[in-house]
């Protein structure tokens, strides 16, 4: 798993540069954590994004990495769990390049030596509704669709002009189109 940490970090950075909305999603996750005061709990502020956000149909998943000696407070994980999140902790190792201070810090091939350090990975699955409110986008698309339908059918029926008798025409708008009071489209 230690080689994968570096690979995950590189993929995450590449994904952030490739997709503009990923950074917005990370900001929304940060705001979500902040709304439940997660950063008040010990060591939660020091996490690094290892992987994510991975956006699924109902979930957004993110994996955070913490130094082994700076394990995030599990109380914050319980708070997230109470609000529908799934949080899991995993102890793993990571290869870290040693700072070069002397020739002893170099391998025989001239590369810097590596050490293996323990780290905590925290996998958090957040219900998508908290981060990306689908209802907002669906309602906005629905409103745009109805306005186009109303406008096109009104032009077809010459509703934009007053009726011949000068009386009002009651209209109901539903997802199927525009109907008058008698149920005709």
How would you concisely characterize the structure shown here?
The chain is an alpha+beta fold and 185 residues long. It has helices at residues 2-18, 20-35, 74-82, 128-131, 134-156, and strands spanning 48-55, 59-67, 86-97, 114-127, 171-174, 177-180.
Structure description:
The protein is 37% helix and 28% strand. It is α+β, with helices and mostly antiparallel strands and 185 residues long. It has two domains: 2-132, no CATH class; 135-180, no CATH class. A hairpin with a 2-residue loop joins strand 5 (171-174) and strand 6. It starts with a helix and ends in a 5-residue tail after the last strand.
Widest beta sheet: strand line-up? 1-2-4-3
Low-confidence stretches: 136-151, 159-181
Taken from the alpha-carbon principal axes, the silhouette is globular
Helical content, roughly? 25-40%
Count every helix, treating DSSP H or I runs of 4 or more residues as helices.
5
The largest β sheet comes out as:
4 strands, antiparallel
Radius of gyration: 27 Å
What is the number of beta strands? 6
| Average pLDDT, all residues | 74
**How many domains make up the 3D coordinates?**
2
Order of helices and strands: HHEEHEEHHEE
Structural class: alpha+beta
Distance between the termini: 62 Å
- What percentage of amino acids are in beta strands? 25-35%
């Amino acid at each position: 798993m230690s080689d994968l940490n570096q690979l995950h970090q590189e993929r995450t950075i590449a994904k952030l540069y490739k997709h503009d909305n990923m950074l917005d999603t990370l900001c929304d996750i940060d705001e979500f954590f902040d709304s439940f005061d997660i950063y008040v709990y010990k060591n939660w502020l020091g996490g690094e994004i290892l992987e994510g956000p991975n956006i699924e149909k109902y979930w957004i998943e993110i994996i955070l990495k913490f130094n082994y000696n700076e394990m995030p407070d599990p109380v914050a994980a319980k708070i997230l769990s109470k609000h529908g999140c799934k949080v899991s902790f995993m102890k793993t190792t990571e290869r870290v390049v040693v700072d070069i201070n002397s020739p002893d810090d170099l391998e025989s091939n001239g590369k810097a030596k590596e050490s293996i350090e323990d780290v905590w990975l925290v996998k958090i699955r957040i219900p998508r509704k908290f981060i990306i409110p689908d209802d907002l986008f669906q309602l906005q698309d629905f409103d745009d669709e109805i306005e186009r339908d109303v406008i096109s059918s009104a032009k077809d029926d010459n509703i934009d002009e007053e009726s011949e008798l000068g009386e009002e025409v009651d209209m109901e708008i539903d997802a199927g189109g525009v109907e008058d009071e008698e149920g005709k489209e």
